[in-house]
Amino acid sequence: MPELASCRGANISYHFRSLKGYPYHGYTLISFRLPRLKKFLIKVPELSCDPVLNCYHVIMSKVSTMSKEIPCPAGLSYRPFQLEGIRYLLDHPAALLADEMGLGKTVQVIGMVNADQQCKSILIVCPPHLKYNWLREWQRWTTRNLTVAMVDPKEDIPTADVIILSEAILARPQIKKALRLRNWDAIVVDESHHFKNPTTQRTLHLYGGRGVKALDAPRRIALSGTPILNRPIEIQTTLAWLDRPEWYDRWKFARAYCDPKRTQFGWDLSGHNMKTLPNLQRRLKGHLMLRRLKRDVLPELPKKQRQIIELDTPRSFGIGFDIWKKLLKGTGASTAKDLLEDEQAFRQALKLLEGSKDVPFADISRVRRELADAKLDAVRNFIKDAVDGSDHKIIVWFHHRTMGEHLAFEFGQQAVLYYGGLSSTKKDVLVQRFNEDPKCRLFLGSLKTAGTGLTLTASNHVIFAEMFWVPGDIQQAEDRPHRIGQTKNVLIQYLVAANTLDAHMGRVVVRKLDIVDTALDKDEELDLLLS
Q1: pTM, entire model
Q2: pLDDT at residue number 511
């Protein structure tokens, strides 16, 4: 492994103590100025291994920005690997941040903006279902007085400093024209692998091509947990946008890495060249890509990592706060915290509400079903990104069986569907297949049926497709993978509909569960008074 021998100003000395199998292992000391070191590592294959390049990136981030303090909101803190990512973004005006899902790519981008006072006009392009998540994270992590707004598909682009735009409307005439009338300081493309096809309208109007000018800015950042989904050619469009001189020639890229073949329909670029792919990885890591996996930063992660993901839904719903207030009134509780502290009281309150003449419980059930139906497309897209983004298995909890059935139909043989109407034998077969079959990626489980008792340690990623209001039930479902035999941290994501009681209850429940996990013996007070 390479070790840092000295670091004075811009001079770096590496001591290669043990590079087994490499002809250069006899070098005891290699000293370069930083720019020359990078060029040397890229040109010498024997030294362009992951440990050396990773060591280079760490040193680069520390040397060039070690004196720069990264602003952070009071009460929050960046994890060490996130600080490294922020420094990397500060050092690289064009960067591909390819951390695995759950490591906080959004937070690292906001941290970069916090530290770079020159970033005053920022465009964020993301999938429709992630718009509210970007808005909430920005409001939570920003330290600057920048205005932020989401673009309404039916209206013009607002005059805010930070614009959050759905990738689905990039090609609309009024949108593409307005985007080019502004001078952007930074453009962020979330889930950049969605722009793999150079001929689609949204790719053309973002990355450029065929006479269409690309959206440009001094800082260009692409985010993707899986930059190369299946074929190397799929990353070329993003690379060409980030660094046009280096990566623009698509045919040159294909010849180097995609093993092109001529067919009766033309050239097939969907292949890959196993001999040259390591070189592509070296070029990316040495040039513009930073990628960390969970296993790389496991000591820095909590055993359970909870996230609220607010989804955009096509309509508003009547599961309103007036119902919640009546629920509180019926039990004598004044806050959400008071009610959730006593799970038995909460269940009793639901029963009281069911018999209430003011709020027919059947209407609430109907609205919740409608909400589940409206969330379905966004939930499906989110889960698809999660499946494509890693090779890990995922547990998905649902309440309405129709939700589970739709997801099972969408993912086919990649999923097992576990619900109450199955025999015990069939249920055992499904659990065994999920835990042992590498082709089975999803466990779709009814929380009422599968939320307790099962051991699902083959997964360390849990998604709640629907929000449940009883913390005890949620905690039981969270613990299906978090049992004896689990050696990884568990990522838990709650998919809620933005601006509804669904989202509010998600935040309330998750805050309670976080406090239970971190301060079991402390009397924590939650400021959860409802307005």
Answers
A1: 0.73
A2: 73
